[in-house]
């Protein structure tokens, strides 16, 4: 296309090669056809479409631009590649290193990714990391953030919502297929989100799916079947008891604790400057009134909800605390609101 003058000057072939790493030959051909179709459709006169009239009299003047390829890439998805929609959906809020522990977690994950990417790095082909912390602490967001940052060509998110309606056999089959697909890529990352729910664990009983649990143990500890390929597994859990009692924690090579927001300084760092939280005095009041531990995602969710109740542009402390009473767990909210009224 370049040789025959059909490519626009803004089309970068190296860039296209980079973003189509996991496309097969047939899929790349589909992208090219779709881009050409986008370029042609741009020149079609919709008012006279029945007659086949086009705006450009000379068909050789039609150029396929970079925007045409972007539209084509949105239309033609590879069988293997990054689950960008899932990853973006996991990162609802900003990743803020509000305490040394979060900074260390990000630094450690960076080191793991660099080691996997480097030819002279770790000889270990499979690295598994278990992120554990209370609900709302941002475990899934951190896992998705690191997966995107890795720029691995294959990234998949395995979450309970994708298995609604599946029986045990169906779940095990899909888990095995995800790992088999990952083995086909030179660099791959799998996020196992909320593994206790994947295993159907409930505290009443307790009950869980032993078939799914055993499948996870086997898949996470399995050696990579192909040489010179790397796989990063990141799992999240909010139930330390479950992974300990089922011995699932032993399947992971590394463990990282995702901390809660525990200090007024951390609350202020997370809130101050966000929409609705530009009044430093009110933010200081909120930070000092939150005599409790909150997950960072929970804090951001409450902050956005409080904006809807705020009478003005900035959220006053009393509005935020009223929302906290409505949305936070009863015991936590009660502990925080003691003495506030």
Automatic annotation (TrEMBL):
GO BP, one annotated term: intra-Golgi vesicle-mediated transport
EC top class named in words: hydrolase
Gene Ontology MF, one: ATP hydrolysis activity
Keyword Metal-binding: yes
Keyword Ligase: no
All residue ranges annotated as the AAA+ ATPase domain in the record: 125-246
Xref: Gene3D superfamilies: 1.10.8.60, P-loop containing nucleotide triphosphate hydrolases (3.40.50.300)
Cofactor or coenzyme needed: Mg(2+)
Entry GO CC: Golgi stack
Domain of life (superkingdom): Eukaryota
Function statement: Required for vesicle-mediated transport. Catalyzes the fusion of transport vesicles within the Golgi cisternae. Is also required for transport from the endoplasmic reticulum to the Golgi stack. Seems to function as a fusion protein required for the delivery of cargo proteins to all compartments of the Golgi stack independent of vesicle origin.
Record-stated family: Belongs to the AAA ATPase family.
Cross-referenced PANTHER family: VESICLE-FUSING ATPASE, VESICULAR-FUSION PROTEIN NSF
Protein name: Vesicle-fusing ATPase
């Amino acid at each position: 296309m370049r040789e025959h003058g059909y490519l626009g000057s803004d089309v970068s072939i190296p860039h296209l090669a980079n973003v189509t790493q996991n496309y097969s030959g047939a899929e790349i051909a589909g992208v090219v056809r779709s881009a050409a179709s986008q370029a042609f459709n741009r020149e079609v006169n919709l008012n006279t479409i029945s007659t086949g009239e086009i705006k450009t009299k000379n068909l050789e003047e039609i150029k396929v631009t970079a925007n045409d390829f972007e539209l084509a890439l949105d239309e033609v998805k590879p069988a293997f590649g990054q689950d960008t929609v899932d990853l973006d959906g996991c990162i609802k809020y900003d990743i803020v290193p509000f305490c040394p522990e979060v900074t260390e977690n990000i630094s450690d994950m960076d080191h793991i990714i660099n080691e996997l990417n480097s030819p002279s790095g770790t000889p270990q082909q499979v690295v598994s990391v278990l992120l554990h912390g209370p609900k709302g602490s941002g475990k899934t967001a951190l896992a998705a953030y690191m997966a995107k940052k890795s720029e691995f060509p294959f990234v998949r998110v395995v979450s309970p919502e994708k298995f609604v309606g599946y029986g045990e056999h169906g779940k095990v089959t899909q888990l095995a297929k995800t790992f088999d697909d990952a083995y086909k890529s030179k660099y791959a990352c799998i996020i196992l989100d909320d593994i206790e729910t994947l295993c159907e664990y409930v505290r009443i009983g307790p009950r869980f799916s032993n078939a799914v649990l055993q499948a996870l143990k086997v898949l996470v500890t399995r050696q990579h079947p192909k040489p010179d390929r790397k796989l990063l597994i990141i799992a999240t859990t909010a139930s330390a008891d479950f992974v300990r009692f089922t011995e699932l924690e032993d399947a992971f090579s590394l463990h990282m604790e995702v901390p809660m927001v525990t200090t007024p300084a951390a609350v202020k760092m997370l809130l101050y400057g966000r929409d609705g939280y530009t009044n430093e005095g009110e933010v200081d009041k909120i930070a000092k009134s939150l005599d409790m531990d909150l997950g960072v995602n929970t804090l951001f969710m409450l902050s956005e909800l409080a904006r809807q109740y705020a009478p003005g542009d900035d959220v006053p402390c009393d509005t935020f605390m009223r929302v906290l009473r409505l949305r936070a767990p009863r015991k936590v909210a009660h502990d925080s609101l003691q003495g506030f009224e």
